[in-house]
Every structure is written in C-alpha cells, then in structure tokens.
Design a protein that fits this description.
Layout: H1 10-31, H2 36-47, H3 50-61, H4 69-83, H5 87-100, E1 110-111, H6 117-145, H7 153-156, H8 159-165, H9 173-193, H10 198-216, H11 238-243, H12 250-255, H13 277-284, E2 289-290
Parallel strand pairs: 1-2
Helix pairs in contact: 1-4, 2-10, 3-4, 3-5, 4-9, 6-10
Length: about 290
C-alpha cells in the first residue's frame, strides 16, 4: 500500500517567500547606491538569491508550495516574476522536462553521432553561462506580441526548443500573456517607485540568472539516460544544501516528484552513489562529452 506523501510545508514556504523577496528588494535598493568594484562584488553575492528563489518557484510548479492551490499558484506567479518570467510558461516547460528528461532533446552534455561537436559546445557554454535564464525573459516578447512564433520553423527546427514549447497547452497561452504583463509591470513599478537605477537593477537580475544557469544542469550531467533515474543526489555542505532548499537531491525529486523539498533527503536511492556538488560543478565545465 502506497504511503500518502507528506503535505507541503505551506507556512514555512510562505515565510521563506517573504524573506527572499524582501531581501531581493532590499538588495536592489542597496545596489542602486553602489558603483565600480563594490557594485560587481555585491551583484555576485546577490546572485545567490536566485537559487532559493527558483527552488520555491519549482515547488509551486509541482503544486508543492502550499496545500491551497490558489495560494500555491499566486505565490508561483509572484516569485516567478522576481525570477524574471511568467509562471505558467516556466511550469509548462518544467513539467515537460520531467517527461523528456535525458531524452535526445535534453542530452545537452553528450555529443552523439551526427552532432556537430562545435555547435554542441557553443550551445552548451552559451546556455550555461546565462543563456538558459535569458531565454525566459526574451520569450516574453513573442509570447506577448507574436504567439504563433512558437510554431515557426525557427523554433520547430530546434529539437530542444520545439520539445519545450510544444508541451505548452493552448489554453495556457492567454494566462501566460497576462503573466508576462505582470512581470513587466512589477519590475517597472519597483524601479519607478523605489527610484532605482534601471541599469543596475537589470545587472542584478541578470547576475542571478547567470548564477542559476551555471548550476541548473549539474544534477543531470553524466547521469543515466533514463527519465526517472537521469539525475544525481549531490553531496553538499549542510549550509549550501539548506540554501538550495534541497535542490541537490535531484534524483530523489525525479523519482518522487510529489514530495515537498523539505522531505527529499528521506528518499535517497541507496543503490546510487552521491557525487560531490563542487566536484560535479567543476567537471561539468569541461563541456559536452562524446557518447561512448
């Protein structure tokens, strides 16, 4: 008999959401008074806020942020806006990722027969030095003004891009467009009413996107080419693991996508080794490897 999964830690997640979004706004206010080396040093520190921020968005994508679906989705919309994109778009793409994990459309770390090695490496480094995140705010332009672009040859001829957008239900498009407007309104309002420097604001937003991009595929790289088992439970310090909200327990998440982040360490697959997070991160930057 299957055990009922634990309930989402709604109160804890709401406290974390308020704390992270509050720090995000305070960080932007502080950064607007900085310049030179101090600004870029702070932007580096600020960028780490994107990691727990997205972890909470990720919980909302799986309806694990809060037991009340309305609260769950409202929090997802708000937190995704801080992240830089429309929640329903991110949710559709991410849930699609769970269906095609380590399939051909997502073997970003493998050069298969017939692949252009140079093109694969260029794509790899472009995506994981910030491009992965940048596609999210850039996607808002066609989503708002030219939704049919998603069906254009430019998108459909890309195995990865077509797999992502073709998984978006048609009835989501109107909701996604409304969320795009909310993202633009929220950031514009913050810059205007808090009298922030727009360029510094965007620099910090991008810094968070770069940091997030560099780490998103690390738990998948060099894992089995299997939908459920194509990830790792990476060993990390207790402090960093807590900061990530257990996002390093990624195999546990893929095997048990209905389990809230708080309980993932209880679902370790003892048949698999746990690579170190830092070592995996460094090895990752060797780039895609040829298929054996």
């Amino acid at each position: 008999m299957n055990q009922k999964p634990p309930e989402a830690p709604g109160k804890l997640n709401l406290i974390l959401a308020v704390l992270i979004s509050g720090l995000w706004i305070l960080g932007q206010i502080f950064a607007s008074t900085q310049s030179g080396v101090a600004l870029f040093g702070f932007a580096f520190l600020f960028s780490f806020l994107a990691l727990p921020l997205y972890s909470l968005v990720h919980e909302s994508e799986h309806s694990l942020f809060h037991p009340d679906r309305r609260v769950n989705d409202a929090a997802g919309v708000l937190l995704a806006a801080f992240f830089g994109g429309p929640f329903s778009f991110l949710r559709a793409c991410h849930l699609g990722h769970h269906r095609r994990n380590r399939a051909k459309a997502e073997l970003f770390d493998v050069i298969e027969p017939g692949d252009s090695a140079a093109r694969k490496r260029l794509f790899f480094y472009a995506m994981y030095t910030g491009g992965f995140w940048l596609t999210v705010p850039l996607a808002m332009i066609p989503l708002l003004f030219w939704p049919s672009f998603l069906k254009s040859d430019l998108v459909q001829n890309s195995v990865s891009a077509s797999a992502m957008v073709n998984g978006i239900p048609r009835h989501f498009i109107l909701r996604i467009r409304a969320e795009c407007l909310f993202v633009i309104f929220m950031h514009t309002a913050l810059i205007y009413f808090l009298n922030l420097n727009a360029w510094i604001y965007l620099l910090l937003l991008f810094a968070g996107g770069v940091n997030w991009s560099t780490q998103q595929y690390v738990p998948h790289a060099n894992s089995p080419h299997e939908v459920l088992n194509g990830a790792h439970n990476l060993r990390a310090s207790r402090l960093y693991e807590t900061w990530l909200l257990h996002f390093n327990w990624h195999l546990a998440h893929h095997q048990n996508p209905n389990i809230p982040w708080l309980y993932l360490p209880q679902y370790n697959d003892s048949s698999r080794i746990r690579p170190g997070y830092l070592r995996s991160f460094l090895v990752f930057w060797k780039g895609p490897r040829r298929a054996k």
